[in-house]
Amino acid sequence: MPHQGGLSRRAGWAGGEPIANLLMAKTLAHPELVSLAAGFVDHRSLPVEPTRQALDAIWSNPEEARAGLQYGTTIGYPPLREAVLERMLQADGRSRRDLSVSVDQVVITAGSNQLLYLVSDVLLDPGDVVICGAPSYFVYLGTVGNLGVRAVGVETDQHGLIPEAIDGELARLEAAGELGRVKAIYVTTYYDNPTGVTLTADRRAALVEIAQRWSRQSKIYVIEDVAYRELRYYEDDTPSLRAFDPDGETVVQAGTFSKSFSPGIRVGWGILPPGLVEPVLAQKGNLDFGSPNLNQHLMAKVLQMGLFDPHVERLRAGYREKIDAILGAADELLSPIEGIQWVRPAGGLYVWLRLPEAIDSGLSGPLFDRAVAEGVLYVPGGYCYPKLGRSPRKNMIRLSFGIQSCQGIRRGIEALARAIRQVH
Amino acid sequence: MPHQGGLSRRAGWAGGEPIANLLMAKTLAHPELVSLAAGFVDHRSLPVEPTRQALDAIWSNPEEARAGLQYGTTIGYPPLREAVLERMLQADGRSRRDLSVSVDQVVITAGSNQLLYLVSDVLLDPGDVVICGAPSYFVYLGTVGNLGVRAVGVETDQHGLIPEAIDGELARLEAAGELGRVKAIYVTTYYDNPTGVTLTADRRAALVEIAQRWSRQSKIYVIEDVAYRELRYYEDDTPSLRAFDPDGETVVQAGTFSKSFSPGIRVGWGILPPGLVEPVLAQKGNLDFGSPNLNQHLMAKVLQMGLFDPHVERLRAGYREKIDAILGAADELLSPIEGIQWVRPAGGLYVWLRLPEAIDSGLSGPLFDRAVAEGVLYVPGGYCYPKLGRSPRKNMIRLSFGIQSCQGIRRGIEALARAIRQVH
After folding, report:
1. How many CA atoms lie within 13 A of B231 on its CB side?
2. CA–CA separation, B190 and B203 (whole Å)
3. Which of A418, B78, B123, B328 has the highest CB neighbour number within 10 Å of its CB?
4. What CA–CA distance (Å, rounded) separates A157 from A132?
């Protein structure tokens, strides 16, 4: 492959301008737009007061403040790693013994995204295959694309990834002599970005079983992204996919406090199979030798002082109003339009909308510019599809309700309904 | 290349256990050891009070606190990028126009190390060549090793990298048909890790000229690491290497507040040639889409409130005592031993000691275990040499004086002198 402009092959794989920049440019050009595009969290709900309390507590003991200002270790601050593991086990109703897990398998990263990057980097060579939903979280598709890895999408429905579709895809890859290149299955198990759906418990068990059953030529890991687990508004919690992997050799769990507390603090983590800990730490050592220690001390203090759960409760109350606003507006304004469908998410930040088949939602299609003219910005669904496997639907859009007020959400849906009627 | 244990080739390239872990294990096993190994900064000098003042100022305005707790942009917080650029220009005595530079070329990263990683990742393919000093900063050697890149070391002296040695190496590579694989020259321009030396002004100019003159088959960048620039105790500042590149197309400058303020806050930056900005941001977007926003707001506030420079002055006063302690102890206790030499650094955190030729300073040599038995830990110099090019000297050690008290430093040098006499 030729070098482009003196850059590395990986720089070339990183691809063109990300959708985020394109949408940012639109927003700057049309400041009056209601953005239902950005996946940012609600601005007014950010934890100003809990963070102040935790910082005050740290600074009340200069030695503790000093510890936070010094280097930490690459794997991360032990009390935070203990707290992360304990929360996961409590939520899953399992013990360390049940899940063959210890704090030595918990690594702190700059958001869950860095963990996804590190794990992908140590597992995947150019040309390797990751199985994921069609659609999937587009930032992760960018990450694997950047590694020269093939993301192969399989069918999903209102219960998430379809096990039979994965089995079918693996059989096809085996027949093509490619099974040995399959290294991972990636899935967001709670309130998926972009679909909003939660993988059902029986499918969680099936996914672990499938990964293990097909690990005949290469080990196939399941990378479980739990970024939205805490953002549930209308149902009980479900044990994580990791809880269905009692040996702990198959599932990588990636989590973050970015959505549930603060993206500006940017503390995430991974709970890793034992064999991946050293390789991930070696790469993280090259990259930044440990995430900012101050942020880790801060999150540990927030958890230890009991400031986290009350904040999440407030967050849920706020987002519950917003999800009611967007689903209410959709029921009223979109459902009368023939051919529009959506699954009602019970949590998260996204509604995944299916338009009439004939409508192309892409940047160069008729709807996008009409929507901007009417005053609303959305993410064209096409950005959320892997390049290979199940072909993209052109008539999907992702709506985010995190940052807008309820009034803003309603105005946005009104504008969207007008735009759709104009191109329908 | 075969896959090892189902991991990627890059995971294999990341190499064995890093020296940091080996030294950590020794420290844990012998808690009474005086460590002159760790490159940590002085613990008591960490900016507890300035950080508290800046946090209080941010929290005095809830909207400002909220902004810090929200996502930022991938490139980083504009006021911080402005401040970084302004400081560089003031220190260099140049204007934006003089150096063809704008704030659009300033990217905020998780320490300078992440910038070094990102730039290397977008420039270097497996098999490509980076020219660097023999010795060089060993974490960067790990980073390029992890990319499958060949680090080729050239001779250095008390004035830093020797331009004629670089010319000679480039001529050799050209004769071997490898000139097209050379993509960068890496250099720490102030108080180098491990040698402690500062590159002289005429060599800075020469380095830019060499990189440009040899950019015949591939563009050759100079990656300038200024991590220790502020830590000068006994001389005036020198314009950076970037100041010798008025077009701004050749030099990448990587800097950090980790050494000069706090590694726990971990804010670094890059000042990039225009053509590297987009590729670096695309990679950073995949990795973490922006360094923690809170830390960026905090450092911007520290600078804006005028808290940074007084802190650096205090830091210099403290380190000046320590460098006097280590050089004084070395004069007294080491110089009587025949065959020991060192360059007196005017700043930084390191003294690079040359032992008598016959003494192997490595982990498996006779000195290391004797030194541990006598009560001192050092970094064997062998870890600081690139794999290719000028062959490593086995009789070098790196001493760090950052974390020990003056008494600890003296005890450490006493122990080292005893150990050397025993194996000499």
Report:
1. 34
2. 13
3. B123
4. 13
Record: contact B59-A48, CB cut-off 8 A: yes
Q: How far is CA B102 from CA A38, B97, B105, B106, B274, in A?
A: 28, 9, 6, 8, 9
B138 CB neighbours in chain A (<8 A) are none
**A71-305: what fold?**
Aspartate Aminotransferase; domain 2 (3.40.640)
Token pair in block for residue A28: 């700057």
The interface predicted TM-score (ipTM) is 0.95
Task: Give the Cβ contact number of residue A229 at 10 Å.
Answer: 26
- From residue B189, give the alpha-carbon distance in Å to each of A278, B348, B402: 33, 11, 19
- Tokens at A201, concatenated: 């418990």
Sequence-distant (6+) residues with CB within 8 A of A222 are A184, A185, A186, A187, A207, A208, A211, A241, A245, A250, A251, A252
CATH of domain B50-307: 3.40.640.10
Distances, alpha carbon B262 to alpha carbons A227, A294, A299, B298, B315, in Å: 29, 9, 18, 11, 11
The pLDDT tens digits of the residues spanning B366-422 come to 999 999 999 999 999 999 999 999 999 999 999 999 999 999 999 999 999 999 999
A294 CB neighbours in chain B (<8 A) are 262, 264-266, 295
CA distance B344 to chain A (A): 27
- Mean predicted confidence (pLDDT) in A11-29: 71
Return the CATH superfamily for domain B9-46+310-423: Aspartate Aminotransferase, domain 1 (3.90.1150.10)
Report in angstroms the alpha-carbon separations of B218 from A10, A400, B278: 17, 45, 19
| pLDDT of B4 over the 80 cut | no
What are the extents of the domains in chain A? 9-46+310-423, 71-305
Percent of chain A with pLDDT over 90: 88
Among A15, A44, A292, beta carbon nearest to B264: A292
Q: Give yes or no for a contact between B144 and B299, defined as CB atoms under 8 angstroms apart.
A: no
Q: Which residue of A has its CA nearest to B216?
A: A6
Of B11, B59, B121, the CB nearest to A8: B121
Region of poorest pLDDT, from A262-271, B22-31, B166-175: B22-31
B294–A262 CB contact, under 8 Å: yes
Distance from CA of A359 to the nearest CA of B (A): 30
Contacts of B42 in chain A (CB under 8 A): none
Which residue in chain B has the smallest CA separation from A124?
B8
Which of A8, A52, A214, A265 is the best mutation test for B, with the most CBs of B within 10 A?
Answer: A8
Smallest Cβ distance to B114: which of A68, A143, A288?
A288
Whether B286 sits inside 8 A of A143 (CB atoms) is yes
B249 vs A contacts (CB less than 8 Å)? none
